[in-house]
Amino acid sequence: MKFLHPEILTVDPGYAEAGRQAARQLIEQIAGNANPRQIVIPAALI
User: Fold this and answer.
1) What CA dihedral angle connects 16, 23, 42 and 9, to 10 degrees?
2) How far is the C-alpha of 37 from the C-alpha of 34, rounded, in Å?
C-alpha cells in the first residue's frame, strides 16, 4: 500500500562502503603492502 504520491526517494551516499574501503586501505598501508589510492564509491538511489 502506498501512502505518498509521488513516492519518497532517498539517496545512499555509500558511507558504509567508504568506511570499509578506508579501513582496508589503512591496514594495507600500515602493513606496507599498498600505496595510497583514490577509491570512488558511487551513490545509490533507494
Assistant:
1) 10
2) 9
Q: What are the residue ranges of helices labelled H in 1-46?
A: 15-30
Sequence-ordered list of residues with C-beta below 8 angstroms from that of 38, at least 6 positions apart, any chain: none
pTM here is 0.69
Tens digit of pLDDT for each residue in 5-41?
777 889 999 999 999 999 999 999 999 988 888 999 9
Nearest-CA neighbor of 39 among 31, 30, 24, 27? 24
Q: Specify whether the CB–CB gap between 11 and 45 falls below 8 A.
A: yes
Q: How far apart are CA 29 and CA 23, in angstroms?
A: 10
